Amino acid sequence: MKGKNCLVMGVVNAKSIAWGIVNQWAKDGANVVLTCQTSRIYGSVCDLVMKHEQHQKIKVVVCDVTKDEEIEQTIQKTNQFLGDRLDCLVHSIAYAPPTAMKGRLLDTTRSDFSTTFDVSAYSLIAVSRHAFHLLKRDKDEMSSSVINVSFLGSTRAIPQYAVMGPAKAALESISRGLAIELGKDNIRFNTLSLPPIRTVASHGIRDFSELSQNYAQKVPLVNLPGINEAISGATYLGSAEGITGQVLVVDGGYSSVL
After folding, report:
1. Global pTM value
2. How far apart are CA 219 and CA 211, in angstroms?
3. Using alpha carbons only, what angle is made at residue 163 by residues 101 and 166, rounded to the nearest 5 degrees?
4. Left if phi > 0, otherwise alpha if psi is -120 to 50, otherwise beta: which for 162?
5. What is the pLDDT of residue 206?
6. pLDDT of 80-117, one tens digit each?
7. For residue 28, what pLDDT is reported?
8. How far, in Å, CA of 143 to CA of 77, rounded?
9. How many CB atoms are located within 10 Å of the residue 200 CB?
């Protein structure tokens, strides 16, 4: 990742998958703009960055992806900090209102459904559109890479995942669609599908401990994949020429035996 310009969206705290990627990529020599969703956590995220040995390579921006003007401002700040080339964009953003995650999918309200899909799926379209001019490459150049983060609930019915399952399915479908549309512009889109990892977002999943225990009991590999394996998967997709429109499953084989 040395010398690459990256935008990583979705940092909440030190346990975030997005922060794990930022942390490692900056150590590897990448220049990184990271986003957090609200100004409420901006200070704590900045504190996290200032403790990093390569903090001068990292810039923090607040971006509420439900607001096009904030996405546009984020891309402008990314352009100012990184220049007019963006090599990797990581979309690690998902949210559903608590009321949508605690009950049945059948009981999901129209408002909760719209919010979930706006933040967790449509935002990939909005961010990609605004960042297009930084991502596009000539035919004879190395491609740029857009990576989104998903979970098995996109293709399997997992009760605890409620409305987030359909949202992740939409996210993966959007990624494939954008891969087809923007391949001619030398931009790759891929999905990184991960196992249950305990983060702030996981607290919103009903019976997450039960889901994690089930995973631990069934996964074939003796060492359970976590943040480090997520970082490895993201790094691979960030530089894997010729791979687009795909889902890279990094779950220790769990999806093969479920």
Report:
1. 0.92
2. 12
3. 155
4. left
5. 54
6. 999 999 999 999 999 999 898 888 899 999 999 999 99
7. 96
8. 22
9. 11
